[in-house]
Structure formats: structure tokens, C-alpha cells
Amino acid sequence: MLSNQVLHKIIKDIERISGAQCSVWNMEGKCIAGVENTTAVMNREVQEVIEDVAWLTMKSVNKNVYFVVSDEGIPVQILALKEYTGDCQLVGEMAVSQLENLQQAYKEHLDKNRFIQNLLLDNLLLADIYNQAKRLHVESDTKRAVFLIEPKTSDDAMVMEMLRGIYAGDTKDFVTAVSEGSMILIKALEESEGYEALLKIAKTIVDMMETEAMVNVRVAYGTIVNELKDVSKSYKEAGMALDVGRIFYAERSVLAYNELGIGRLIYQLPVSLCEMYLQEVFEGKCVDQFDEETIAAVNKFFENNLNISETARQLYLHRNTLVYRLEKIQKMTGLDVRTFDDALTFKIAMMVSEHLKFLKQRE
Q1: Final residue of a domain: which of 264, 279, 311?
Q2: 209-261 residue pLDDT tens
Q3: pLDDT at 154 over 70
């Protein structure tokens, strides 16, 4: 059913155009819009109209005129014109037509949203996908990609409203959600658009949310698909990119499934292999044995391609202090992170450790 806010706007538009005082009632006899235009007498009259509703489309009672608003032949509302001296039938039938058309459009929107959600979650058979897409006028052979937008704070409603304001106007794009904490944009693409366009869209969303809504978001997107049935694949890829980003790339605001690097590889490893690897590298010792200063130093060391002088400069440390912290890791693990092979082993071990921590927290 249409929201009271939409009904109220329709009533005000009818009054402004025709000069008639209008109200809309539900089938329980309660006024749901235009309450200020009702009287106690009208309450009784509406009850009479509801009793006879199966047999009429318009009924005059005293000085008031009542019209039935139907949804696929089923009466759902009563439109009342209060003591109107103009052409009641013309105004009433036009108002009813407007209400019924909006009811139908709203139902189609809900049906389309439900279809898109089921499509994303793989809840539809292949035949159902194309049958429902045809009925709902959703193109099945358009290039698309799925974006997942995750606010870093709990401003879901504002983010959803902004996304709908920007993209929902395009009949080929869809904005929806299937779970709390993230919004979904299914973006239709032109034939000439590729992954550069996806990156640009993701960056635009991040910038727009930060500047206009004052909300920090993380945006992940899957690969481009050419058929409607493959949209769920792009959605799952975007979900994986978001998870991998939370674990390994917390500093990134944009995450592309096809650019996750070693993070995607580790994410897909079985837990048993991850635990075996950590056992091998740290010989049963806890990963938390390293203090924050040491971890910060070695991470910056990796960022600077194992360059001790540049790392010491950026950390405002004496070169010997940095060397001492790196040697602490060697004493504790036997890995000399100043060499490429040991640095790679230690880096992967820390990423595997972060992955296991994430899995435990999610449980």
C-alpha cells in the first residue's frame, strides 16, 4: 500500500487543482489521509459505503460523494469528496485513476525489489529468472556489475537514501539491501564501459558520501557480467572483496574483486592449512608475542621495500633502533626480515594470522 506521506501529497494536489476537500479511508473505516476534511457524520457514511462497496464505484450520501479505489478489482480504499459543488464524477474518477495507478506502480516496485533480492541470493530457478524479468520489464542481456557499500558507521538509512536518489531514477539500475550493514547497487553499464568505469563509480560513491553525507564508506565491486543470471556471481565476488578488505586492507576505501592479490588467496585457504602454516613459521608460539612498536616498524619496513634508511626516516627512529627491532623478530622466530625470502614468509604469516582472527570473531 502507498505510504500516508504519498497519499497526503496526492490529496493536497487534488485539492489545489479542483478545490475539492478530499480524504482517503481504508476498508476498516479509518481515515488515513486528509483527516482535517472529515466530520463525525462522514465516519458513519463511510461505514455504509464499505458495506455496499462490492456493488458500486461511486455513491452520494447527503452532500458527500464517495468513490471506491481498487487494486486488481479488489476494493482497498475509499476516496471521499466533502460537500463539493463542482463536477464530482470528473474529479473523483481522475483522483481514483491516479491512486490506482500509483498503487500498481508501488506493487511493481516491491515485486521488482523482491525479484532482485532473490536473484542476488540465488533463490530462483533459471526459468523463473527470465520469466519474472520479462514480466517486470528487467532487461536480461545488459552488462552489469554489483557494488557493495558498507558504512564505517551506522548511517545505513542516509546512505541508502542517497544511493536511491542518484541511481534509482535509472530504470536499469537497482539499489537494494539483503542484510544489515551494507547496501547493494546493481549498475548497468554501456557496452564501451569496463573496469576503469567501475573504479570511477566506486570512487564517486566514496567521495559523495564523505562530502555530502559526512559518512565514511567502503565500496567493493565484483566482476562485470553480461547476463542477468550471473548477477549473483558478481554479488558474491563483491562480498568476498569486502571481507578481504576488512581483514587485510583496512586502509582502502575501494576494493575490486579482480585486484585483491594475495589477500584473496589466503582468504580461500582452509583453516587447517592456515593453522599448519603458523605452526611451521612460529613453532607453536602465539602471534601476539610481538609488541605494537615492532609490528609497526616491520610493516613500514615492508612498505618501503626493505629499505632501512627510508623506514627509519619515516618513523623518526635512529637506524640502529630500527635494526634492533627487526633483529628482535629474528631472535623470536628465526626469520631475518631484512632478506626477501624471510620477509615474504613473515608477511604471509601475519596475514594468515589476521585471517584466522577474523574467522573467530565472525563465529
Answers
A1: 264
A2: 888 878 889 999 999 999 999 999 999 999 999 999 989 988 899 999 999 98
A3: no
Q: Which domain holds residue 357?
A: 269-362
Please report how many Cα atoms fall inside a 13 Å half-sphere around the Cα of residue 160, on the Cβ side: 14
CATH of the domain at 243: 3.30.70.270
Within this chain, do residues 164 and 234 fall inside the same structural domain, yes or no?
Answer: yes
List the grid coordinates of 216: 565514511
Q: Is residue 45 part of a domain?
A: yes
Contact by Cβ (8 Å): 180, 172: no
Does residue 87 sit in the same domain as residue 168?
Answer: no
Whether residue 116 is contained in a domain is answered as: no
Is residue 154, in this structure, part of any structural domain at all?
yes
Catalogue the E-assigned strands of the chain.
Answer: 21-26, 31-33, 58-61, 64-71, 74-82, 144-151, 174-176, 183-188, 217-221, 254-256
- 20 CB neighbour count, 10 Å cutoff: 23
Rounded distance, CA 59 to CA 62, Å?
A: 10
Residue after which a domain boundary falls, among 102, 133, 164: 102
254, 182: one domain: yes
Distance CA 178, CA 186 (A): 13
Single out the residue of 13, 9, 17 nearest to residue 87, CA to CA.
17
Q: What global pTM score does this model have? A: 0.70
Contacts of residue 75, defined as CB under 8 A and 6 or more positions apart, other chains included, come to: 27, 53, 54, 68, 69
Rounded Cα gap, residues 351 and 293, in angstroms = 18
| Termini Cα distance of the chain | 39
